[in-house]
Amino acid sequence: MIAGESLRILESLFIQVSARGVPIGPRDYMDALAALRQGFGLLTRARLLALCITLWTRTEEEAALVSAVFQQIAPPSRDEIAQLNRDGPSFGETPIGQSVSRDANETIDNNFAGASESDIGRARVQIASSSGHGVALPAVQLGEVPAAPFVMSSVPLVSRRQMTVHWRRFRVQRRDGPRTELDLQASIDRQCRNGYLDAPVFASTRRNRARLVLAIDVSASMATWRDFCEDLVHSLEESRLGGYQVYFFENVPDVLYRTSSLHGASTLDEAVAATEGSAAFFVGDDGAARARHDSGRVAAMKKCLDRARSSWEPIVWLNPMPRHRWRGTGAELTARDRRLSTIPLGAEEFARAIDLIRGTRAS
Amino acid sequence: MDSGPEGKGEATPSTPFTGTKSSRYVASPEIAEVVNIAIALSRPLLVEGEPGCGKTRLAYAIADELGLREPIKISVKSTSTAKDLLYRVDSLGRLRDAQNKSGQLARFVYPYVSLGPLGEAIRGAQGRSVVLLDEIDKADIDFPNDVLDVLEEYAFQIDELPAREEAACRKKHGFGRRVSIEERPRPIIIVTSNREKRLPEPFLRRCLYVQLKFPQDEGELRQIVAKNLAGSPDASDHAVLLAAVAAFRRIRQTAIEADAQKPPGTSELIDWLRILHWSKTGATDLAATLPPYWKLLFKTHADRDGYEALASRPNEQ
Fold first, then answer.
1. Residue A60 — φ and ψ, nearest 5°?
2. Which CATH fold topology does A210-357 show?
3. What is the value of pTM for the model shown?
4. Which of residues 241-300 of A touch B (CB under 8 A)?
5. In the CATH scheme, what is the homologous superfamily, with its name and number, of domain B29-212?
6. pLDDT tens digits along B189-201
7. Hey, where are the domains in chain B?
8. What angle do CA B1, B5, B6 make, to 5 degrees?
9. What is the reported pLDDT for A108?
C-alpha cells in the first residue's frame, strides 16, 4: 500500500470514526500522521488498521467500529483476499466482535465483480468468521440440567456503593475557614529565615467545596427507575461533597420540589439563585419513555436548560432510557445540545458522568 | 529523519524494539509494534494484564534491548502525589541546619531541593531513560491526571524555590525553577495497571494501550521460561522443562475451570521450575495430577482447594 493511499484512508477513517462518536481529536490525527511518516502502518492495509486501532481506540467496541469503517473505506484487494484465504486473518484484521455491515458486503460485491464466486464467498466467510457473525454456531451440549431451579434476581446497573465511590471523586479542595491547621512548611520557613520561631504558622483546613444540584424527574414515565433514583439520593448523603441540593420535578424542571411527593415548590429561577455556581445533574427520560415528540414540552425544556446554564456549570443529564429510544423525542434534541452532556445509564456511563461533572471535556 | 508535525521528541529510536533480543523477555511482534509507536510518538504506554504476566518486565526488556540504563521504577502507592515524583524539598533537614547558629545555609531553600525520579528523567542529565510507573491504579484518582499534565509538556515548576534563589540553584544543582526536557529525547514512559480502579478518561486517551495475555502457545511459553532461566544455576534440563510446562498448562487450565481468583502465571511457573530443579525432580514425576510442589503455584487457600478438588475428580482426568 503506497503512502498516498494510506493518507487518503487515514483522513476518511478519522472523519468517519470521529463522526460516529469515538472521542478522537486533531492531536490523535497528527499522531497517526507522525507515525505514518516514521514508517508505521505502511505496506499493508492490515498494518494501517492496526496502527489506527492502537492510536485511536481504547475499548473493544471502538476497535470494532474502526475496523468496520475501515472495511468500508478500504476493502481488501483481490490479492489480499487470495492471501487471506491461504493464510487466515493476520494481526489487526477485523478483531473479534466486529459486525460486518451490509455496506461491507456490498463493497465486496461492487469491487470484485470480476472475481470468481468462490473467492468472494471465501472472503466473506473469512471476514464474518473473524467477526463472530455469519457462521453457524456449534450445537451446545447442555449436559445434565441442574436440580436447583433458576432464580432471577434483579441486579442494579449501578449499585449505591458504586455511586458513593464515584461521588467521592467529585472534589474541589480549597482552604477555607479559620486557620486551625499547622502549616509545617511555612513554620519551618519562618524559623529558617528569622533564625527563631516566634509563632507557628497556621493555615485553613482543606475542605471539599464541590457543590451539586441533583434534579430528578418523578413523573409516571420514570416509575421504572424509582429505586435507582432513591439510591442516587441516598448515595449523596455519604458523598462528602461540600454541599448538595436535591430537587424533584415532573417532566420539565420549570418548577422544582423539595420532596419526591412534590411538596415544597420553588421556581427554577429561585432554585438557580439559591445554588448559583453548582454543578447540576439531571435524571429524567426527557420524553423518551413514551417515544413521542411533544413540541410544547421540547420548547419548555429548552427554556429551562437555557436558564439553568446561566448559573449551573457543568450540566450533565442522565437519561436512563437506552440511547436508541431517544430518537425522535425531546431526549434526542437535548443530547444534541453541546452545552450540556447527555449520557445513558450504566456503570461505565455513570463513572463518565462524574468525570464530566469534575470538568473533564465531553467526548 | 522527519521530525513529524509536533517537532521535537518524535525521533524513532535507532534500534527498534523487537521483543526478542532481551535476555529475559519475549514480546510478541504486535506488542513490539505498539511499543515502537509509543516510543516514536513519545506517548506513555499503559500496560495491563493479569498479575505475573510480565507487565513490569516489559519495561526492563525495553531498556535492555535499546541499550538504555535500568528503568527508573516508581512504585505507586495510595499516598503518591505527582509532586513527589518530580521534586522534594527537605524541610526537616533545613530545620535541623537552622538550629546551628553558624549555619547560614538554612536561610535559603535551594540547598534543600532535589529532583524526584520523574524529575530526573525529565531533566535528562543522564541521557534517555525508561520510566516505569508501576501499578498506577493504586494511587488517588487525581494522580494520573496530575502526572498526565507533566507528561504533556515534559516540564514542571518548583513552586517552593523563590525566584531570587534560581541562579544559585542552577549553579548548585544544574536546574532552576522550571525544569524541562528541551531538545533532548523524551523518556520512555511505561505505566502498569492491575485495573483495581478505573483510570480517568483523559489519561486513557493519552496513553497507548497494550494488554499482555498469557501465552496460548506451548512453544512460546517454553521460550519465555528458557530465556528466564538461561545461564542461571537453576536452569532445569530440557526434559524437565518440557514436562513442567505441559503440567503447568494443565494446572492453569484446571484452575481457570475451578474459577480461581488468581490462576498461576508466568512468574509462578518460573519460580516452580527453580524449586523443581533444587529438589532434583525428574520429568516423569511431573505427569501426576498433583505434581510435586504444585501448591506453590497458587496464592490463596481457596484457589488451592478449588484446584485440588477439581483435579482429583476421577472423571475429570
1. -65, -35
2. Rossmann fold (3.40.50)
3. 0.61
4. none
5. P-loop containing nucleotide triphosphate hydrolases (3.40.50.300)
6. 999 988 776 787 7
7. 29-212, 218-310
8. 100
9. 43
